[in-house]
Amino acid sequence: MIRFLAIIFTGILCSMYIFPFTFTFFPVGNTKIYMAVLGGLLFIVNSIRNMNSVTNRSMIYISLAALAVSIVGIISVFYNGTNDYAYAQYIISMWVWAGAAYFVVQIMKKIHGNITVELIGKYIIGVCVAQCCFALMNEFIPAFKNIVDAYVEQQTALLNKVERMYGIGASLDTAGSRFACSLIMLAYIMTKYAKNGGKNIVILFYVLIFVFITVVGNMIARTTIAGVAIAFGYFLYTLKDGFNPYQRKILYSFVSIAALAVPVMIYLYATSPEVNNLISFAFESFFNLAEEGKLETHSTNELLAMWTQIPEHLKTWIIGDGYFLNPYAYDPYYTGIHKWAYYMGTDVGYLRFIYYFGIIGLLTFFYFFVCCTRECSKKYSSDKVLFVLLLIMNMVLWAKVATDLFFIFALFLLADYVDDQSEESTHQHKPAITQ
To answer: Contact at 8 Å (CB) between 97 and 407?
Structure first.
C-alpha cells in the first residue's frame, strides 16, 4: 500500500512537471520552478554525499548547444535594439527544466531503483490519462471544476471564454503537445511489449489507453492528432520486415476497441448535446470532409493564413527582428505594424523563430534538439527510434506553434540508466539519494 501511494505521489510530481501551473493562493512562480529549486538542492546534496563526480557529460554538450541559442538571441536583440529576451535567455530556461527533471527522476529512482525508458514513458502516459480524466471531470462535474478554478491559475478566464476543455495545467497547445508525445511513447512501448511476446490483455489495455487519449486529447487540443499520425507512421515503419504475429495482435486489439468505442461515441453524439459539441470540435476536419468534402477546420485555415506572413527583408531572414513576443503589448517605443496577438501576425513556430533570430537562430535551435536526440540515443542505444520520433514530433509542432520538447528529453537525460540485461551493472547500482 505504501509503495502504491509512493507511485501515485511520484505521478503527481510528474504531472506538476509536465503540466506546470501556479497556485492561486501563492502566485509566485509555478510548480516547475518549485521543483527546479528542489532539484538544484538535491543535486548539491547528492554531490556532497557522492565523493565521485556526478557530472553528466551529455548535459554539458547540450548546455553548450543551448548557450549557442542564447548567444544568437542576444546578438539579434542587440543588433535590432529590442528588449525581447525570450530566447536570449534560453540557457536559463533549459536549466530550469533540467533542475525540475532532476528532482522528478530522483524521486522515481528512490521508488523504483532503476529507471528505464519504459518507466519514464509509462509515467508520462499515466499523467496524460489522468489529465484527460480531469478535463472530463471539469466539463461534467461543476463541483470539481469550482475547486480546480479556485486553487489553480491557468488562464482560466480565457479558457472559459473560448469554451475549451482543460485539466489541471493541461490546456490548448501545451496539452496537445504532451498528449501527442504520450501517444508516440505508448505506440513504441506497446510495440516493444508485443514483440517480446506480451499478453493479449495488456496489449488490449494499451490500445484502450491510446484510443482514450486520442479522443479526449483532441477534445482538449487538436494538436494531439499530430501524435496520432506519427504513432501510426511508426506502426507502418515496423512493417518493413513483413506482417508479424505481434503486429497482428496490435491490429486485432485496435479493431476490437474501435468496434466497442465507435458505437458508444455515436450514441453519445446523438443523445448528449455536450458530448456532441466536444466530438464535433475534436474531429471537425473529418466532419467537414464528410459534409463539405474539405479536410479543414477554422483553426487550420487560420494557421495557413499565418504561414503567408513571411519576412520581407533579407536582414530578417538572416538574424531576425529581435521580436518573439508581441511588442505592441509591452514595448512603448514600438512603432511597427500591429497584427493580431503575435508579432507580424503569425503563431507558426518556424516563422516566429525566424522573426526573432533568423535562419541562423532557427538552425542553431534545431541543432540543440539534434544534440538532445543524439545524447539520448547514445544513452539508450536500443531505444533510439523513440528519440528520433520525438525529434520529428518537435519539428512538426513548430509548423503550428513555437514550443519545444526539451522537458521530455530532460527526463531521459538526467535519469541514471542501468541496462536491465546487465546483471553486473544492476548489482552495482545504488539509488543516489539513499547513499
So the answer is: yes
Give per-residue pLDDT as tens, 132-145. 999 999 988 999 99
Strand partners, 354: none
Of the candidate ranges 87-96, 98-107, 190-199, 366-375, the one whose mean pLDDT is the lowest = 190-199
- Tell me the CA distances in angstroms from 22 to 26, 156, 265, one per residue in order: 7, 11, 34
CA 255 to chain CA centroid, Å, is 28
Whole-prediction pTM? 0.88
Q: Decide the pairing of beta strands 22-23 and 152-153.
A: antiparallel
Closest CA to 417 of 120, 178, 11: 120
Label each residue of 309-378 as H, E or C: CCCCCHHHHHHCCCCCCCHHHHCCCCCCCCCCCCHHHCCCHHHHHHHHHHHHHHHHHHHHHHHHHHHHHH
The DSSP element (H or E) to which 48 belongs, if any, is helix 31-49
- All 3 cell numbers of residue 8? 501515485
Helix residue spans in 54-171 (DSSP H): 57-80, 90-112, 117-140, 142-151, 156-161
Q: What is the pLDDT of residues 227-253, one digit of tens each?
A: 999 999 998 888 887 778 888 888 888
Q: How far apart are CA 116 and CA 380, in angstroms?
A: 9
For the chain, what is the mean pLDDT? 85
Helix ranges (DSSP H) in 168-308:
172-195, 200-220, 224-237, 245-271, 273-282, 284-292, 298-306
What is the widest separation between alpha-carbon atoms in the chain? 68
Which of these, 403, 324, 309, 331, lies nearest to 73 by C-alpha position?
A: 324
Tell me the per-residue pLDDT of 308-333, one tens digit each, with 9 for 90 and over: 888 888 999 999 988 888 877 676 66
- 3-class DSSP state of 50: coil
Burial of 110 (0-12, 13-18, 19+ CB in 10 A): middle
**Domain ranges in the chain?**
116-296
DSSP secondary structure string for all residues of 142-164: HHHHHHHHHHEESSHHHHHHTT-
Residues 418, 113: Cα–Cα separation, whole Å:
10
